[in-house]
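Worked example (supplementary).
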Amino acid sequence: MNALEINDVSFEYVKDISVIDNVSFSIPEKATTILIGPNGSGKTTLLKIMIGLLEPTSGTVRVYGKKPKDMRNNIGYVPQKLYFDKTFPITVMEFLKLADTSSEDEILSILESVGANNLAPSRIGELSGGQLQRILIARSLLGKPKILFLDEPVSGIDIGGEQNFYELIKDVQEKYGVTMVIVSHEVNVVSQIADQVICINKEMLCSGEPSTALLPEVIEQLYGKNVSLYEHQCK
Amino acid sequence: MFELLQLEFMQRAFIAGIVLAPLLAVLGSFVTLRKMSFFADGIAHASLLGVALSILVGVAPFGGALIIGVVFGVLIFFLERYTSIASDAVIGIMFTTGLALGIILISLQPGYQPDLISFLFGNILAITWSNVWIIAILSVGILSTVIFMFKKLTLTSLSEELAWTSGISTKYVNLLFYILLSVAVVLGVKLLGIILVSALLITPPVTAKLVTGSFRSYVMSSVVFSLIAFVGGLFASYYLDLPSGASIVMSATIIFIVVLLYTKILNNKKI
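After joint prediction of all chains, the assembly is encoded as:
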């Protein structure tokens, strides 16, 4: 069974100006799928459509056969950033208790599984980019989701932290068997963790296993002529 | 020392303030998180239209101010949500419109309007027992609702996207918060006046933010600072013969300055 099915989805913020144009793809269960595209390609809009925050102008989205709105309790979401006052006094434990009715022990166990159990008493605003990502992943796992969406998860993390993050994603997938959809503008994410890649720049440019789908000409269409980065990463 | 509480008008003011101060502090904790202090100011000013309408038709202005406050709160909510106009612009337009209509309606009335002055600057002498009852019942109702939906409200205030994907109906949570805040602001207007009411929403939570590390202690400290500011201000206004609303606001400001200096000195010592 496919975890996610997108059929002929288009989206317009302003009438007759498409941000997403007639996109169709499916995401298999328990796979890690990377949705890549340059900045402004409509990735985050598509992500918001997939989790039900936006309704497509046309087309359909089904998560495990149902509308995203009706599957909210089975969807985990890790936003790119938390836009709130960093001086605001709220601890990691308090923040995680807001998510659902999980007990303190359950929360500590999830925190341990993402390597962040020592952060429970810390203030959210004091965390580094990498630590905050771990907390947001822990929060999304508390609801025991079937599918987890991550928006630009390595954007605020340094290179060392990126590698740790990729390992964390692999661990989480093995442990929880969750379907993962990661939106990223960075091509090198694909070579690290993807089972499947979907390339988008308003319309869909590729879909499939990274080795067969992410051809140099597709990268050129996505990012211009600078394709050496991906080739280097693969080597 | 407590001779002032023998006076009936002070008893009324004291009960109203003891109920209102925690309410405004708790809601203010969310107002600072959501950066909505301009909204509170806007509702307070727009409520003048309710006062003017009530004077025009000859009914008690408190009820009119409450109704108009809620109407403007709901209007701001829908304009923010369903138009592309920036939130501060929506509030700016709405509150000046309410204020202008209020001024026009009042100008049509001949003579001095004591109700108007008491709503502008707050007047504890103008608080009646029926006002106290309304303030107490609505405050308890609002506080109970906030406590009941505390987790949902906090998560929605932190990140609407996270709240929505957690299964929370963020639209209704936000709409309810706008209505509760509008009612609380107008209740506060009776005590502190249109111009000063937002001080008790903002100053105690901002003071609490300086000395707390968790959300629970932040809300509790906001309540404590708000109560101290109210009681201190009320006593000062009685013994120093000062306007009550302004005294309460200055009391909150003095607490803020003391706490700010204390935390600065403490931080310097740590370095």
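Two points are worth noting when inspecting this output. Chain A touches chain B through 27 residues (CB under 8 Å). DSSP finds nine helices and nine strands in chain A.
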